[in-house]
Amino acid sequence: MTLNKKKACSLVFVLGLALVFNACSVKYSFTGTNINYEITKTFSVENFFNDSGGGPANMGQQFTESLKDFYQRNTQLELVRSNGDLQLSGAISRYNIAPQATVTSTDPNAPDRAGQERLTIVVEVEFINTKNEEENVKRSFSFFSDYNPRTTSLLQVESVLIEEIFENIIQDIFTATVANW
């Protein structure tokens, strides 16, 4: 093969690859979203209220702000007050602390104590995609974290546990709504 034929073959190959990649209509980002930013430009998040009857007073506001921040960091969408192309709303529906393991005391007069306690939080979420109703989601997301009540009180670790739980719930919400994995 001569040099000109090699150049021609290479040029045809490169043009073919360009056509294949250009023909793909779904746009993927490095964060794993499949948002078409030509159609979907905004998102809104209504205040999530704490309807669980437990937890800190500011827990609903903390969740709302964390959710907004996560979407802003991981998408190119603009946050608007209401009526976004993508809309998130809901409430914290459960805040529960339950023993997970019992430690039996060697003292017959001392009561058995929990060796592990589990904090579980459940968030009800409604996601509306005004551009594609097939992607709408309405479901519960939950996560938990354990701590040792014999060495630390809930008040000492509550804010850290809530933050950890919220990070996991928000990641799950993001995956279910805009990542479609």
From TrEMBL:
Pfam family, one: LptE
Signal peptide interval: 1-23
Lineage start: Bacteria, Pseudomonadati, Bacteroidota, Cytophagia, Cytophagales
Keywords of the record: Lipoprotein, Signal
Highest taxon of the lineage: Bacteria
Name of the molecule in the record: LPS assembly lipoprotein LptE
Gene from which the chain derives: lptE
Organism name: Belliella calami
The keyword Signal appears for this protein: yes
Listed InterPro entries: LPS_assembly_LptE
